[in-house]
Structure formats: structure tokens, C-alpha cells
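User: Please run a holo structure prediction.
Assistant: Happy to. Please share the sequence and the ligand.
User: Here you go; the ligand is zinc ion.
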Amino acid sequence: MQHTLKLVSQYDAGNNEYTIFRHNLSPEEADEAVRELSAKLFGLFVIDQPAKHSAGGAELCSACRRQVERSSHVQPKPKFKRRQV
Ligand SMILES: [Zn+2]
């Protein structure tokens, strides 16, 4: 059985920047992460991951950045920003 993996990201439309919070999540874990994070953050979104990412932390994961940039329909491309929370 194949599990869909998700990553959780936040997009700041004002600055056209995005932050990555979590990756390699099951759909349930992604829902839970969004519920938890949305208490203090806006602009969260969940993106499908076609494959498991090998990097340990989502913060340092270049596969996450590629996936977010591929999924975004924003021009110019959003910039990656390290998270502050
Ligand atoms: Zn990743």
C-alpha cells in the first residue's frame, strides 16, 4: 500500500516568501500539524510529496524547496526563508 506523503509550508504573500515546517508526514499528521500551527500562523498549506525526502529536517531539505517552488503558481518564484517560530 502506498502512502501519500505531505509537507507543510507557509506562504507569506506580502513578501513572496515561504517557510517549510514539516515533511514526510502522513495525511493525518499533516492535518494535525496544520491544526496545531494555525493557532499562531496564517497562510499554511499542505503540498503532496511524490517521494519520501531523505533529509532529516524539513528546514534543511532542498527537496521540499523544489516541491514548493514547483507547486506554486506565483511569479516571480517565492523565496525560501528560514522559519522564525
Ligand atoms: Zn523535504
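The mean pLDDT is 92.
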